[in-house]
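re: the backbone from monday

yeah here it is again, tokenized this time
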């Protein structure tokens, strides 16, 4: 069946209508250098085993570091961390020198003040069009009080007004 491809601009607008959280995904290169990128494509995959996924664009500056990484971490950004999101979405060379971060228990870089974090062993990768899906097995995690940062229709949004789960 030949169906016409959707108009790309219209398709992007439709995708942007779905609010998502904002994360910074980090790893270390073989020589120990921290690398990271901003991602809104993050989701839980499985509870047993504990699996999550993120997607990285093939054109990302840090693509090679993540494509072969044995582990990676995800920091769920908090309300007020839009500058951190923009920093890791940029092509700036030294992103880690411009924000607060610390090593997690597994030695992976975690963004300070984040709402939650997940430290993962790379479970598998899946090639999917112009992205690579990284599936990670969670080995450490945590969460904090700050409300998470959200992104929708090209703008950041605060979720502070949402009630906390019991």
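seq for it, each position gets an aa:
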């Amino acid at each position: 069946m030949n169906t016409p491809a959707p108009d790309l601009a219209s398709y992007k607008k439709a995708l942007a209508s779905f609010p998502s959280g904002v994360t910074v995904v980090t790893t270390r290169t073989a020589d120990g250098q921290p690398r990271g990128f901003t991602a809104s494509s993050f989701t839980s995959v499985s509870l047993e085993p504990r699996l999550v996924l993120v997607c990285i664009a093939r054109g990302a500056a840090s693509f090679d570091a993540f494509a072969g990484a044995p582990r990676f971490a995800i920091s769920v950004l908090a309300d007020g961390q839009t500058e951190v999101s923009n920093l890791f979405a940029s092509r700036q060379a030294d992103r880690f020198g411009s924000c607060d971060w610390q090593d997690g228990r597994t030695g992976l870089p975690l963004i300070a003040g984040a709402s939650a974090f997940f430290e993962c062993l790379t479970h598998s990768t899946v090639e999917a069009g112009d992205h690579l899906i990284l599936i990670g097995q969670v080995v450490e995690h945590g969460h904090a009080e700050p409300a998470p940062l959200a992104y929708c229709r090209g703008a950041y949004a605060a979720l502070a007004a949402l009630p906390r789960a019991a």
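The longest strand covers residues 116-128. The CA atoms of residues 115 and 145 lie 7 Å apart.
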